[in-house]
Specification:
The chain is built from eight helices and no strands. The N and C termini lie far apart (about 60 Å).
C-alpha cells in the first residue's frame, strides 16, 4: 500500500500509516499517544520521532526493540529494566546504571557485563552464573566470582588473571591443564 506521507492529518490516517510503517510517525503533526504506541510497536526505532515521550510509549518501544533505548530522553528505571530484560546489550545505552538494571542486564546476557560501569561482586556473580565466559569482563576478579564461573564451566578457568587464584581454583576443582591464565 502506497501512503502519501505529506498528507497525514487525521488520527485515523496516522494510525493507518504507522501500522504500515512505524517511521511514518515523522510525518504526523498531531501525535496522540495511541498513534505513537502503534508506531513504536511496529518499529521501536520510531521512538526518535515521538515528540512527547511518555513512559508507556518508551516501554512499548523498548519491548519492540531494546536498542530503541538510545532514543529515550527520560530514562526511568522501569524503561531501562524492560530494555535490558529483552536484550542485555541494551545496557550500553543506559545513562544511569543502577545495580538493579545491571543485574537484569547480566541475567539476560552475561556478556552485558562489559557495559557495566560499576561492577559490584553481586553483578559479576550474576553475570558468570548466566555465562561463565563473562569472567573475561570482570575488572576485579574476586575468589568468589572466579569460583562461581569455574563451577558453571571449568573452561572459564582460562579467564582467571591471578596466577595464585588460578592455581588454587584448579587444585580445588582438580583441574589439570596446560593453559596458563590470560595476561
Amino acid at each position: 500500500m502506497k501512503i502519501n506521507f505529506a498528507g497525514i492529518l487525521t488520527v485515523e490516517a496516522a494510525l493507518k500509516a504507522v501500522e504500515s510503517d512505524g517511521d511514518a510517525l515523522r510525518y504526523v503533526k498531531d501525535q496522540t499517544e495511541a498513534v505513537c504506541i502503534k508506531a513504536v510497536e511496529r518499529n521501536g526505532d520510531a521512538l526518535r520521532y515521538v515528540k512527547d515521550q511518555t513512559e508507556a510509549v518508551c516501554i512499548k518501544a523498548v519491548e519492540s526493540d531494546a536498542y530503541a533505548l538510545q532514543y529515550v530522553k527520560d530514562q526511568t528505571e522501569a524503561v531501562c529494566i524492560k530494555a535490558v530484560e529483552s536484550d542485555g546489550d541494551a545496557l550500553q545505552y543506559v545513562k544511569d546504571q543502577t545495580e538493579a538494571v545491571c543485574i537484569k542486564a547480566v541475567e539476560s546476557d552475561g556478556y552485558a557485563l562489559q557495559y557495566v560501569k560499576d561492577q559490584t561482586e553481586a553483578v559479576c556473580i550474576k553475570a558468570v552464573e548466566q555465562n561463565s565466559d563473562a569472567l573475561q569482563y570482570v575488572k576485579d576478579q574476586t575468589e568468589a566470582v572466579c569460583i562461581k564461573a569455574v563451577e558453571q564451566n571449568s573452561d572459564a578457568l582460562r579467564y582467571v588473571l591471578s596466577l595464585k587464584l588460578f592455581i588454587a581454583i584448579a587444585a580445588k576443582f582438580k583441574i589439570t591443564t596446560n593453559v596458563m591464565p590470560h595476561k
